[in-house]
Amino acid sequence: MHTAYVLVNCDLGAEMDVIEKLRRMDSVKEIHGTFGAFDIVAKIENFEREKIRETIIHNIRKLEHVRSTLTLMAIPGQS
């Protein structure tokens, strides 16, 4: 299983809208609103690393109100 954490910046006041859209994505397993430099953190899991890439590039980054993302790929065996 591959895991990535995606840190999301979104338009002011659009956090709940983005969270609701993230909840509908199959590979997104956890979502948390955050304080600080980023607005949302999403945990993405999939058996195929390519599916994680597709989820981020084709789904998350193209959501309305998403301004930027930063992806952290987990290192297998270091959990």
Walkthrough of the structure:
By secondary structure, the protein is an alpha+beta fold. The chain has a single domain (about 1-75), classed as 2-Layer Sandwich (Alpha-Beta Plaits), CATH 3.30.70. The protein is about 25% helix and about 40% strand. The protein has 2 helices and 4 strands. The chain has helices at about 15-25, 50-60, and strands spanning about 1-10, 30-35, 40-45, 65-75. It has a 4-stranded antiparallel beta sheet with strand order 2-3-1-4, with helices on one face. β2 and β3 form a beta hairpin. The longest helix is centred in the last third of the chain and has 12 residues, at about 50-60. It is globular. This is AsnC family transcriptional regulator. It holds the Pfam family AsnC_trans_reg. InterPro entries: Dimeric_a/b-barrel, Tscrpt_reg_AsnC/Lrp_C.
Largest sheet, spatial ordering of strands: 2-3-1-4
Helix vs. strand class: alpha+beta
Number of strands: 4
In total, the number of domains comes to 1
Low-pLDDT windows of residues: none
Share in helix = 25-40%
CATH class division: Alpha Beta
N-to-C terminal Cα separation, in Å? 12 Å
CATH T-level fold name: Alpha-Beta Plaits
Give the H and E element order: EHEEHE
Helix segment tally: 2
The 3D shape can be described as globular
State mean pLDDT (0 to 100 scale). Answer: 96
CATH architecture descriptor name:
2-Layer Sandwich
CATH superfamily: Lrp/AsnC effector binding domain/regulation of amino acid metabolism (RAM) domain
